[in-house]
Amino acid sequence: MQIINFLGNPNIGLFFYSTDKFTIAPRIIDEKTVKIIKDELKTEVIKLDVMSSSVNAIFLAGNNELLLAPKGISKDSLKELEKLKMKIEIIDTTFNALGNNMVIHKKKALVNPNLEDEAVRQIEKLGFEVMKSKIAGVETVGANLVIFSKKGIINSKAKAEEVEKIKEFFKIDLELGTVNNGSPLVKAGFVKNASGILVSKEMSGGEIMMLEELMK
Questions:
Q1: Residue 85: what pLDDT?
Q2: C-alpha pair distances (Å), 108 with each of 22, 54, 63, 139, 168
Q3: Domains observed in the chain
Q4: How far apart are CA 184 and CA 145, in angstroms?
């Protein structure tokens, strides 16, 4: 685990999209942070501003084999992503912040309950079982749930019935948690892959201990 400070913003999970193979980082990233990412996450670092924005992780979703990108992505950004030599699917939806509106784990996808039927069918055609749900009564499920290998951390305000439904869907254990010293928006506080985890300097000791347990 490494602690990083990016632009003085504790919401590092919004800026970096990481798989076990690569990490997409804002173009303005400094070389010290690049080195920390390479050392901790063991990935190459791709400098890119998806949708002309530095908050890359709110726009992208997927896994180690597939990258989902929003319809409005620029040709230049798409050309950069294609260099990753992996399958890329453009999702036709008005909810272009894909990372905030869906969670992909193995062959299952939890999505915003308002996601259009056509977009759902598109994801299903990629081989995913799709379930619509809210977390803590809000639609942006991707901002409120992060899944590790066999466990996950979910918004501390999630309702019991939501937690049970999501646990059963993904076949994982779930822990109610927070990041950045009390924020329930768990995606924002850290970046992880199978090799390691980056956390913001605002993380409390208890929050760090929970993340370390989830990594096991």
A1: 87
A2: 22, 27, 11, 17, 12
A3: 2-215 (3.75.10.10)
A4: 10
The tokens of 59 are what? 């726009």
The arithmetic mean of pLDDT across residues 114-132, rounded, is: 98
Residue type for position 98: L
5 pLDDT higher than 90: no
Rounded Cα distance, 173 and 47, in Å: 34
Helix/strand/coil (H/E/C) assignment for every residue in the chain: CEEECECCECCHHHCCEECCCEEEECCCCCHHHHHHHHHHHCCEEEECCHHHCCCHHHCCEECCCEEEEECCCCHHHHHHHHCCCCEEEEECCCCCCHHHHEEEECCEEEECCCCCHHHHHHHHHCCCEEEECCECCECCHHHCEEECCCEEEEECCCCHHHHHHHHHHHCCEEEEECECCCECCHHHHEEECCCCEEEECCCCHHHHHHHHHHHC
- What is the mean pLDDT of the segment spanning 91-108? 97
